Amino acid sequence: MSSKVTPASETTNPEEIYAKHQKVYPRQVTGIFANLRVLGVLVLLGLYYIVPWLRWDGHQAVLFDLPARKFYIFSLTFWPQDFIYLALLLIIAALALFFFTALAGRLWCGYACPQTVWTEVFLWFERQIEGDRNKQIKLDKAPFSARKFRIKATKHLVWLVFSAWTGLTFVGYFTPIASLWTALLNLSLGPWETFWIIFYGFATYGNAGWMREQVCIYMCPYARFQSAMFDKDTLIISYDDKRGEPRGSRKKSADSKALGLGDCVDCTLCVQVCPTGIDIRNGLQYQCIGCAACIDVCDDVMDKMGYPKGLVRYTTQHAMDGKQTHVIRPRMIVYAVLLVFITSALFYSMITRMPLRLDIIRDRNALYRETTEGMVENIYTLKIINMDGKPHTYHLEVDGLEGLKLINQRGDIEVPSGEVITVPVRVQIDPINLKHTGADINFHLQAVDKPELSLIEKGRFIGPVMQ
Amino acid sequence: MSETRQDIPTIQKFIAVLWPSFLTSGVATILFFTAFDPQELAMVGGYGIISRMAGYTIGFFIFWLLTATTCALTCYFQRPCNQPPSTTHHHHPKDA
Fold first, then answer.
1. What is the mean pLDDT of chain A?
2. What b/e string do you get for B53-85 counting C-beta neighbours within 10 Å, with b at 16 or more?
3. Which of residues 161-200 of A touch B (CB under 8 A)?
4. Which of A142, A217, A386, B45: disulfide with A415, CB 3.0–4.6 Å?
5. Hey, are the CB atoms on A67 and B53 less than 8 Å from each other?
6. CA-CA distances (angstroms) from residue A333 to A150, A228, A340?
7. pLDDT tens-digit readout, A76-114
8. Which CATH code of 2.60.40.10, 3.90.1150.10, 2.60.40.180, 3.30.980.10 fits the domain covering A356-462?
9. Residue A256: CB partners within 8 Å, gap ≥ 6?
10. Which of B5, B30, B34, B49 to mutate to test the interface with A (most CBs of A within 10 A)?
11. A275 neighbors A289 (Cβ within 8 angstroms)
12. Average pLDDT in chain B
């Protein structure tokens, strides 16, 4: 083999790769898929760093307010009781992952995974500070010097500052980010916030700066089980060995047919650009994150040689075998139907969601008491939760037994948006109307300004039975 | 079938214990604290007033400790019970 570069997977015993890890220096690549990934990085990281700063109706637009146990997403406020939406969202995310993996392979890994996206940024910093691939290799091989120290220290400092910003932004999704920055500048950050900023920042620095492709190879569960979602119609990145072999270097002017060579000029650029250090020409490997860097770089080479593009390309196993590729197949239909069904269920339940809750807590001290007028009285504590984006005034009524009387000293109850108001109420009845020791009664709650905002909640009324 | 199982490197064992337990303890933390408010739990348990962030954090690490212990025990029990004194070229009676 005339390769100038040997892939890490060939020089290192796979069993020892953790112990004797060879650093991968991915060469910079340009092309359509590289542009798509840069777009992915800009959009996703742009959203990540900007979204916590958006404001909506006087609060942070997206805030998973853990200290207050409330999630704000623009005009919606979610409570722990709304956990079902989070569960549905996670199921949808998992199904979408199955769907897109079966359809187009590891799209997630190559373009959208935080590991890829942040590693891409860290690689960019590394290139700005240390120079291109060859300069990086040379610097690492060079003996220790003041210059090497200065360059390495600058890189790590930049990485650490960026990681700290990332960690602070992360915590900013859970406690208001503006006050977080204020606290940071006043050096008055709380201990738990500080801890999580350091924890997340350190994880970013370690994963994107040091671990990189090892996270994908050794730590990612998806990388291990994604093969279960693959079939012969799944889009994969593949080297066309029928066209490429026998590989070999030649002059641009040379007649490859006369030399008995295939189209692969064995320039090893596909190996040099690979972020996981594999050789795509060895076939589909689980280390391949589907980033398509090898496609971009090989297309450039093919252009320069005057050969058609696509020696390494997105294709399917069926297409490689000269068979028809089926995009629509049972697996895809099942995933798609489930996805559409659960997504519509989520939307339907969100649209019809009643942004109002009433919790009824009976007085624990006494089952009932008798008033001086001879009425039987039960005491309740009502918790009214207004989950709507606007404040509302609610009217409360009670029925379910003949002659029930509600004594609510507050009258109609005003509840600000996203607040819980506790209202003590008394319910009285003439004991003549009591047929049983216990009966269900209904509390009706209705917004005065918005009648469709109403609900009925059951409570238990207890009293003595008159013989 | 006579050769002993090739073990994964020590560092990979650490990852195999710490990483999956980290993921599951994250899920456990979300599920648990969606159902229970750490502040109320601390009050009921007689620990006084703690901040919710403290409750979540401590809860997460207790979960992680438990799940990591489980992972470590699984790793440990994967060893054969009757380890021979010399592991090289050992023939198990069953394989003979």
1. 89
2. bbbbbebbeebbeebbeebbeeeeeeeeeeeee
3. 175, 190-193, 195-196
4. A386
5. yes
6. 57, 17, 10
7. 888 888 888 988 999 999 999 999 999 888 999 999 999
8. 2.60.40.10
9. A250, A262, A263
10. B34
11. yes
12. 81
Q: In the structure, what pLDDT confidence band is assigned to residue A19 with cuts at 50, 70 and 90?
A: very low
Give which of A66, A199, A214 to mutate to test B binding, by max B Cβ within 10 Å. Answer: A66
pLDDT at position B71 is: 94
pLDDT of the residue at A21: 63
State the nearest Cα–Cα gap between B22 and chain A, in angstroms.
11
Q: Containing H/E element for A10?
A: helix A8-11
- Taking CB atoms and an 8 Å limit, are A69 and B51 in contact across chains? no
Of B9, B53, B57, the CB nearest to A18: B9
Q: Where are the domains of chain A?
A: 356-462
Concatenating the DSSP letter of every residue in B6-66 gives PPPPHHHHHHHHHHHHHHHHHHHHHHHHHHS-HHHHHHHTT-----HHHHHHHHHHHHHHH
* Minimal CA separation from B82 to chain A, in Å: 25
CB distance from B96 to chain A under 8 Å? Answer: no
Q: What pLDDT is recorded for position B86?
A: 53
